[in-house]
Design goal:
The strands form three sheets. Strands 1, 4, 5, 6, 7, 8, 9 and 14 form an eight-stranded mixed β-sheet that branches. This protein is an alpha+beta fold. β11 (about 275-280) and β12 form a beta hairpin. The protein has helices at about 65-85, 105-120, 130-140, 190-195, 205-210, 210-225, 225-245, 255-270, 295-305; strands at about 5-15, 20-25, 30, 35-50, 55-60, 65, 90-95, 150-155, 165-170, 175-180, 275-280, 285-290, 310-315, 320-325. The structure holds ligand DP6. Ligand DP6 binds next to α4.
Length: about 325
């Protein structure tokens, strides 16, 4: 094989209906379906180059990564190598344009960009569905950063039919995600460890059994642009996941006092008639969802809250894409 290289760009995403817990941790087959929106402008750009070197290498934001981080990437490269029938090792160079510790999980955009760049560099031309499945093996939520706009990841009955697809384009609804940064500390328990303990919570079965209902309400709210319906289901879903986290063994408490202060303020602003709701991933920072016309005012209000150190703003993003090398 001649030296082959490709660059992929993928957005982060915020889950509106959360993925929490796996049926199969190795294949990353989730216990429930999930829905997210891609976050425009919060991207990972990854270049993969297959070459004659003796081992895979990984560089993230200019620093070389070895150990577990590299192993996780090599496992995806192994899947690509097996499909493309090649043996070459690869150099992987990845840049996130959003600050580390900003409460934006980089694994979703990172594994989506890796799946796209790696498969292309290996000479494969995978479909969106195949790319979504491949990205899923690196990080579950990465399956949702392959298609554009509002995206659903169906749990599926097996590894083949567990992939994500777009349910509406970015143009469907001008929602804005304002991420209230209350803590820049690296979280103590990552999602992968969290998924593994989810079944220890007595609340997890109830959460999982109720998921088809929440997915349906969320899907319909997006298609009908019904903010009130979206707000109540998104907050319920986030609270249900955190109830599971808090009642797992070991217990996972991601919220900080300032997280709760933001959530309380958001609920009060909604009572005052503002289209606004919150959702929180496996961290302390609060994603505040609103519509474009309210974004400026919401940003000011969030910045005025004690404990909010910064606010990141993202609109609805598109699908993962290939870039000319050097382009981002
Ligand atoms: C709380 O996809 O980060 O953000 O598959 O182990 O990488 P791994 O987990 P990950 O889990 C995401 C958990 C979540 C909810 C969500 O994004 O759906």
């Amino acid at each position: 094989m001649t030296v082959s290289t490709a660059t992929g760009v993928a957005c982060a995403n915020i889950a509106l209906i959360k993925y929490w817990g796996n049926r199969d941790n190795d294949l990353r087959l989730p216990v429930n379906g999930s829905i997210s929106m891609n976050l425009d402008g919060l991207v990972t750009t990854t270049t993969v180059t297959f070459n004659a070197s003796q081992r895979d290498t990984l560089t993230i934001n200019g620093g070389e990564i070895t150990g577990k981080g590299l192993e996780r990437v090599s496992r995806i490269l192994d899947l690509i190598r097996a499909t493309a029938n090649i043996n070459e090792k690869a150099d992987v160079i990845s840049e996130n344009n959003f600050p580390a510790g900003a409460g934006i999980a980089s694994s979703a955009s990172a594994f989506a960009a890796l799946a796209l760049a790696g498969s292309k560099a290996a000479g494969l031309d995978l479909s969106e569905r195949e790319l979504s499945r491949l990205a899923r093996r690196g990080s579950g939520s990465a399956s949702r950063s392959i298609p554009g706009g509002f995206v659903e990841w169906q749990a599926g009955a097996n590894a083949e039919d567990s992939f994500a697809f777009s349910i509406a384009s970015p143009a469907q609804w001008n929602l804005v995600d304002l991420v209230a940064i209350v803590s820049a500390a690296h979280k103590t328990t990552g999602s992968t460890e969290g998924h593994a303990v989810a079944p220890t919570s007595p609340l997890q079965a109830a959460r999982v059994n109720d998921t088809p209902r929440r997915l349906e309400i969320c899907r319909t709210a997006i298609l009908q642009k019904d903010f009130n319906a979206l707000a109540s289901i998104v907050e319920l879903d986030s609270d249900m996941m955190h109830a599971v986290m808090m009642t797992s063994t070991p217990a996972l408490h991601y919220w900080k006092p300032a997280s709760l202060a933001v959530m309380t303020a958001v609920r009060a602003w909604r009572t005052d008639g503002r289209p606004i709701c919150y959702t929180v991933d496996a961290g302390a920072n609060v994603h505040v969802i609103t519509v474009e016309s309210e974004a400026r005012a919401v940003e000011e209000n969030l910045r005025a809250l004690a404990g909010v150190n910064d606010v990141l703003i993202a609109r609805v993003g598109g699908a993962a894409r290939l870039a000319a090398n050097g382009d981002s």
